[in-house]
Structure formats: C-alpha cells, structure tokens
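Honest question from a wet-lab person: if I give you the sequences of every part of a complex, can you actually get the arrangement of the whole thing, not just the pieces? Trying it with mine:
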Amino acid sequence: MTRVRIDLFSSLDGCTSAGDGPENPMGEDWGPITAAYVATRTMKERVFGDTSGAGTTGIDDAYATAFFTGIGAEIMGAAMFGLHTFPDDPDWKGWWGDEPPFGFPVFVLTSTAPRPDIAMQGGTTFRFRDGRIEDVLAEASEAAGGLDIRVGGGIRTARAFLRAGLVDDLHVAIAPVVLDRGHRVWEDLRGLEQTHRMTTEVAESGTLHVTFTR
Amino acid sequence: MTRVRIDLFSSLDGCTSAGDGPENPMGEDWGPITAAYVATRTMKERVFGDTSGAGTTGIDDAYATAFFTGIGAEIMGAAMFGLHTFPDDPDWKGWWGDEPPFGFPVFVLTSTAPRPDIAMQGGTTFRFRDGRIEDVLAEASEAAGGLDIRVGGGIRTARAFLRAGLVDDLHVAIAPVVLDRGHRVWEDLRGLEQTHRMTTEVAESGTLHVTFTR
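Yes, you can. This is the full assembly:
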C-alpha cells in the first residue's frame, strides 16, 4: 500500500530555515538544523558520493536510511525546485545536476504555466503540474508503482499536504538549537497528535526525532 | 552558590497556554501541556495534598521533585500572581489559598503601585516590587539564604530574565501536542544553546525534557 511520507527539519522552537536568494537558497540557518543529518554515513554516501564509510551510524543514520528507502515518486513545491529563484530561466533543471539523486518521477507543483517534462540521467523525470494537490497525489500514486510517495518540501508544500489530511508518515528531525526566525514548521497543524500516533527519540547528536504515523 | 532557575511548559511547537480571564486564568491549553506533570506522584502530593502514593514515578516525577528542591525564594510576574486578572481587589492574595505551597519569600513584579507585603501561613511572604529585574533578583538572592531562586513565570517574566542573561538553569517540559496558539516560549531566545549546555530526555509519557545549564 502506497503511503505518503514527509521528512522535515526543525529547530527546537519549531522554525525551519528561510531561503535567502540564489546564492543561498536554503538560508543560513539550514546548516545548523541539518548538521547532524549531513554528518551521517548514509547522507555522506547518498548525497555527497562519499563511499569511504565515513559518517555517523547511530540513530540519526537510521532515520537517514529510512528517508531513502521505498520511495517511488516525489512531489515538491516550485520554490524547492528553484522556479521562484530562477523564474526567467526556461531551461532550469533544478539544483541537483545532470543526475539528480531521485531515480523516480518528481512532480513539481507550479501555479505558473507548466513546463514540458524533463528526463534526467539516472531515472529522474521532472513533471510540472498546476492542478489540485489531491489530483497530483493521485497521479504520483500511479507513478510510484506501489512504492511510497515523498512530499519533499518546502515547508509550505509540506504543510498544505498535512493540513489536507493527505500524509501518513511525518518525521521531524528537531535540532538542539533555538532559531527564533524562519518558517514555522507546525503552523496550522494544531491537534496533529490526535489524528496520528506520535513517537519521540533522542539521537546521540542531541537531535530529537519525532514521528507522526496513521 | 545561589542559582537562578526556571521551569516552563511548552507544546511541541513551542507554545504555552495563554490565560483566558478569571474563570480560566491558565487557559484551556494548560491542561494538555501539563497533564504528564500533574500525573506525577510528587505533584499529587505537593500541590494536591494526595499522600496516598498515587501518581507516576518515572522521568517526569524526577523533574517534578527537582522543581521543589533547594528553592529559597521565588520571583513571579504580576499576571501570574493575579494582579492583571483582579486589578481592583486591594486584598488579592494570589491563587494559592491561605497556605501557599511556597514556604519562602515570593517577589511579585508589578509596574503599578506596590502593595504592602503579605505574610501567609506556612512561611510564604508576598513582596511587591516595581524595580529593575536585576535589583529584584539581588534582593531575592539575599532572601534565599544560599538556596536557589526560582523565576516562576509567567512566560513573559521568564523570557525577560532569560534575555537578560540572568538564568543559570532552564528546564522546559515539552508535551507531545501541537497547539499552534498561545504565547511563544522561545521568542527572542535565539542562540540560547550557545550560552548554555543543553540536554534532552524523553519521559515514559512522551514528554520531552530539555534543560539548558550554564
């Protein structure tokens, strides 16, 4: 059964980094709230191509491995793909180079004129859609071939799916820092613990891993 | 050496209950964010006079016990004492009955005309002060007789002491609920993890206990 999954990064005070233009699209707070994740063996290998075996192998790494497991399609917002940062580049192909680390269809939500599909190396195709999120989700479910769907972000896209009751599994990695600025991860999500079962775990790094499952 | 301590209750999204008038001074979200604490053996005995031994005895209870240990004076805001709720009652003596569960001097910060001290049964005296928080803290340190000082709340008073760098130990009990309303616990406290050492622990109830110590 295909499940809809979201992984988010938050500070202790429920903030996530706000982007800061083309030079720093994730914003300067992205580093501190993802530091423990970036340090894992899985992230070093999967995202940075470091196959030396370096990196942490504890609780953070277990969540990082789960992040990459069993996904057949992804849905992301226009901002995460980069359409807001580079609105005038019709050939923009995302931040991830010629061979993005997806390997499956990625549906990009856009309210501007949809673009033609882009087929990348390694099995990733970017497909631009301007329909209702429920309709895009239905199409992504078809494309996922029985595997799960990841709603990749950004935070506004993630919250839209959560508010609409479309998410089965939410994982939030809460870094032990107080940001007091940025986007609010939990905005409009009052009572989420009543529709989902919650678990909490503290990693060796001090990162709190919170999951909501239904 | 006298230390300045604060204990706070928060939701997962960094909110704490906002009061709702004389009938419900703590607000309707106070119950959900303090439920695990109220369930402890220590709170049942110390606050509700239940000496039957009922109540939880795990991690939540360890923090509840610490809360009551080693305090020689308290500082609280006018709102927490009730001066904002009952501004026209010159005989208001707080919410805690004839024998409040303090047993030491309690300094009430007020920007309106200070009232005479009130001596209650059981060793509690309420002392109303309109000076700078640093000056009140100095007076409370004298009164604490070598024990610690608790800044009891509410959240605005707690944040004022934290922002001013006056707090040695902060404990936040984070309940596994999303409120998305109320006062923001962490507002204006960006970077607190850089001036204090942080620990995190998950209680049997799902409550997260976060401490900041310097």
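Two things worth pointing out. The mean pLDDT of chain A is 95. The interface with chain B takes residues 12-14, 176-181, 184-193, 198, 200-202, 206, 208, 210 of chain A (CB under 8 Å).
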